[in-house]
């Protein structure tokens, strides 16, 4: 377990965030630099040129370009040290002399000019292990609670309405997001060594496409929840059923278009590895742009809904003192935050290199529990859902009681092939006839 964490945890946590935090595991950084060096060697090989005594050289950290005798080649600290020591802004340089016998030893040594803190690396490993454990628990809890909420909303027909249908689609998007995270982790990080860094299989790329689709769909259904509630408060006549088809197209269709365009661009312009490293910022904005747009619009809708709620609660038609009004407003605001995903605005528009540790905890750790919170607030604690569940429970209890009671009172009926449902039907008809006859007897003749 320790070896797996040490070899792939940087990339694992860096990629799981949708607003990507551009950090990479050291082993993957070394492999990437090695591949770049090999490509440069193939494209710019001086061959048998006698002037270039010192050829291209990869020393497992730095790629040294060809040089003539007497040349001194200076190189900056490898990117590996920048990844492992992000708080340092300035790094030193190393040099090698080209002699008649080839390259000299490096001077000064890497560890003399490139900062490296082994204790800090160990503490960061522990920190990332804790974050991974937190988001694993969060997504597992959300998956169980959302599945239970879906069963409840699908089972009871009286709960079938446009509002709950939108909630159900949001629940499905959260479920798919959790499943896609587990699948991606299992496919990308199944190996204990750094061989996962450059997986080129079609299956791996398909998993990444599915992951991005699920995450995008989740953001868009959060946007639709906000749009639906805002439209419901603003418009007097609201054709919910007609709008629901458009919501479905936006929620599931728009992510399909964005992910398809992104995949085609990756195939033609950035077909590197398993598409889990986004070096081309322009292509990455095909995914990141719609996400930021949905977060921004949802934030505007959230502010608009709060303003409308304030106006409605301060209306003279609404009874209650000022403290109760603000209490209801605060309660409504807290309920809307997980539904709109407003917490994503905390880091959505900040530079990606700022507060990486805090962003990991906030986006991965706390964000993984969002599905659980949404399921609890909008299903398990929903008054309409609770009433329907209680009604069904009472109905089942009464039917079971009468079935058992009729079986004991009329054993001949039970043994003659008449089932419990027929007995209850007879009992119900008899009771209604008795009530009608008694009502006619009590009614005075005209």
Automatic annotation (TrEMBL):
Its main location: membrane. GO terms for cellular component: plasma membrane. SMART domains: HormR (SM00008). It holds the Pfam family 7tm_2. Residues 36-118, 131-382 form the G-protein coupled receptors family 2 profile domain. GO terms for molecular function: G protein-coupled peptide receptor activity; peptide hormone binding; vasoactive intestinal polypeptide receptor activity. The chain crosses the membrane at residues 133-156, 168-190, 210-232, 244-265, 285-309, 329-349, 361-381. Keywords: Cell membrane, G-protein coupled receptor, Glycoprotein, Membrane, Receptor, Signal, Transducer, Transmembrane, Transmembrane helix. It is found in: Cell membrane. It is a multi-pass membrane protein. Residues 1-23 form the signal peptide. InterPro entries: GPCR_2, GPCR_2-like_7TM, GPCR_2_extracell_dom_sf, GPCR_2_extracellular_dom, GPCR_2_PACAP_1_rcpt, GPCR_2_secretin-like, GPCR_2_secretin-like_CS. One of its GO terms (biological process) is adenylate cyclase-modulating G protein-coupled receptor signaling pathway. Belongs to the G-protein coupled receptor 2 family. PANTHER family: PDF RECEPTOR-LIKE PROTEIN-RELATED, PITUITARY ADENYLATE CYCLASE-ACTIVATING POLYPEPTIDE TYPE I RECEPTOR. This is Pituitary adenylate cyclase-activating polypeptide type I receptor. The lineage of its organism: Eukaryota, Metazoa, Chordata, Craniata, Vertebrata.
